[in-house]
Amino acid sequence: MSSIFTKIVQGEIPCHKIAEDDDFFAFLDINPNAAGHTLCVPKKEVDKLLDLDEATYMGLMAFSRKVGLAIEKAIPCNRVGLTVIGLEVPHVHVHLIPLHSMANATFQNKEKLSPEEFKAIAQKIRANM
Ligand code: AMP
Asked: Among 6, 88, 119, which is best to mutate for testing ligand 1, by the most ligand atoms less than 8 A from CB?
């Protein structure tokens, strides 16, 4: 069965899309640590980061860098943090998180956003890509 992120990439499940190229896809995290929290995934469905072939791994990092630079321009924050966890969804994804303080890096303090706020944030990041 396809992962939830493959379903997002294929347009079967809605998302707030940020960017896409032939191999990678970025969208807002539905339960963000902070406004602007974005996930970057390879379209190729692989569970664990270190199981990616080297070209896909390097490509994912380059794609995440581009998206991270756009987040940094769009969302006022101290810096954009990058982390990979993967305990919930078995499809590699890079978390790009606008950090205001360490609390945003813990995955314990979540920010509630309205659909309109998600939409506006996605538009703002896309405008900086
Ligand atoms: P983890 O696998 O522990 O790195 O966490 C998975 C992340 O995916 C969490 O931050 C979730 O909020 C996020 N997530 C799960 N389902 C969706 C979805 N349908 N759209 C956007 N983000 C999602």
From this structure: 88
Ligand 1: atom nearest CA of 29 is 22
Convert the pLDDT of each residue in 44-90 to its tens digit. Answer: 999 999 999 999 999 999 999 999 999 999 999 999 999 999 999 99
**All structural domains of the chain with their residue ranges:** 4-107+115-127
Q: Which residue out of 16, 37, 91, 93 is catalytically annotated?
A: 93
CA gap 128, 77 in Å, rounded: 15
Note the pTM of the prediction, 2 decimals: 0.98
Q: Which amino acid is at 25?
A: F
The CATH number of 4-107+115-127, from 3.40.50.1010, 3.40.50.20, 3.30.1310.10, 3.30.428.10, is 3.30.428.10
Half-sphere exposure of 115 (CA within 13 A, CB side): 2
The yes-or-no answer on residue 93 being catalytic is yes
Given a cut of 90, whether residue 1 has pLDDT beyond it is: no
